[in-house]
Amino acid sequence: MTTVSTIEELALETCVERKGISPMARREAEQLLRVLPGWVLAEGSIEKEFRFKSYLDGLDFAYSVGKIAEEQNHHPDILIKWRRVKLALSTHSVKGLSQNDFIVAARSELKYRESV
User: Fold this and answer.
1) For the purposes of burial, counting CB atoms within 10 Å of the CB of 13, is it exposed (0-12), middle (13-18) or buried (19 or more)?
2) Which end of the chain has fewer CB atoms within 10 angstroms, the N or the C?
3) What is the pLDDT of residue 3?
């Protein structure tokens, strides 16, 4: 089980290929969610909806998340709404959650904190 104590520590990790491994156990996912405020465990994914002062602020954030996704080669589902952006992360190659989901979530969370 991976142990991290802060969101910053998690965000320093790098995504790696996870093909061929089992999905993360629910207990481990719940442990990692403790450092990701507002993120929730859904069926096989983690999700969060972010709020913004304007539609364009949300678009800027979604673009920033896209850049993180490309750097890490791990891409969330992004739903852009009026003044809100919802991210959903899962690892398709393991058909569930992996450490990569939490790394991208942590990096996205820190990017959000910079923008508000």
Assistant:
1) middle
2) N
3) 73
pTM recorded for the entire structure? 0.95
Q: What contacts 24+ positions apart, CB below 8 Å, involve 58-64?
A: 58/82, 58/83, 58/84, 58/85, 60/115, 61/85, 61/111, 61/112, 61/115, 64/108, 64/111, 64/115
Average pLDDT over all residues of the chain: 95
Is there a contact between 88 and 75 (Cβ–Cβ < 8 Å)? no
97 backbone dihedrals φ, ψ, rounded to 5° = -95, 150
Residue with tokens 């739903």: 79
Query: Please, which residues have CB within 8 angstroms of residue 52's CB and are 6 or more apart in sequence?
Result: 58, 61, 83, 84, 85, 115, 116
Q: Specify the fold of 7-115.
A: Gyrase A; domain 2 (3.30.1360)
Element (H, E) at 92: none
Separation of alpha carbons 100 and 39, rounded Å: 15
Residue ranges per domain, the chain? 7-115
